Amino acid sequence: MNAVVICLFAQAGFDKAAQGLAGAGRRLANSLGTELHAIVLGAGAHALAGDLALVVDTVVTVDQGEYEPETCLSALTQLCRELSPRAVLLANDTYSQEITPRLAHRLGGSAVGDGVDVHVDGETFEVTRQVYGGKAQAVIQLKRQPAVVWIRSRSFAPANPLARRR
C-alpha cells in the first residue's frame, strides 16, 4: 500500500470543494512520499480529468450514466484494489457519504467522515473532525489501512499545479 487516491463525481465539476479535496490529497501524498491518483466517476468524467491532471499524478475516468450506488462502489473497489492505496479521500457530498463506509469494508480498511484534517503519525492515520457543534475537535486514529475518509467541503486549500517534466 503506497498511493493516495481521491474520488470525485463528475457532475459537481471542479468546484472549490473538489479543488480542496485535490489539495488535501496532494499534501497527504507529499507527506507520505507517494503518488496521488484521482478516480472520476459519472457522465462527463473526461471533462473533469483535464483540470485534475494539473494537480494529480494520474487520472482514471469511469464514464457511466446516472449514479447507482452499487455500480459506483464496484468500480471504486476494483480500481482501489489495483492501485493499493494507503488512503482514499472522498468529497463531502451525499454520494461519497453513502459509499465511504461500504468502500472501507470492502477494502478491509477503516472509515471516518467529516474530516477537517488528515495526517499520518507513524503508520497510523489520524483524522480530525469537529464534534459538539464545532465547539471541540476529536482526533480519530484509523488502525487499518486503507484509510477511507470523506472530508468536509472547503476545509482544505487547493493544490498547486504540478511542475511537469518535458
Provide the fold topology.
Layout: E1 3-9, H1 16-32, E2 36-41, H2 45-52, E3 58-62, H3 69-83, E4 85-90, H4 94-107, E5 110-121, E6 124-131, E7 136-142, E8 147-151
Parallel strand pairs: 1-2, 1-4, 2-3, 4-8, 5-8
Antiparallel strand pairs: 5-6, 6-7
Helix pairs in contact: 3-4
Give a count of the beta strands, DSSP E runs of length 2 or more.
8
Rg, nearest Å: 15 Å
| Overall average pLDDT | 91
| Residues in helices, as a percent range | 25-40%
- Rough outline: globular
What does this protein look like?
It is a single chain. The protein is α/β, with parallel strands linked by helices and 166 residues long. 33% of the residues lie in helices and 34% in strands. The protein is built from four helices and eight strands, in the order E-H-E-H-E-H-E-H-E-E-E-E. The protein has helices at 16-32, 45-52, 69-83, 94-107; strands at 3-9, 36-41, 58-62, 85-90, 110-121, 124-131, 136-142, 147-151. Strands 3-2-1-4-8-5-6-7 form an eight-stranded mixed sheet. Helix 2 (45-52) links the parallel strand 2 (36-41) and strand 3 (58-62). Helix 3 packs across helix 4 (94-107). The longest helix is centred in the N-terminal third of the chain and has 17 residues, at 16-32. The chain starts with a strand and ends in a 15-residue tail after the last strand. The model has no long low-confidence stretch (mean pLDDT 91).
Task: Based on the model shown, name its key terms.
about 170 residues, alpha/beta, eight-stranded mixed sheet, 4 helices, 8 strands
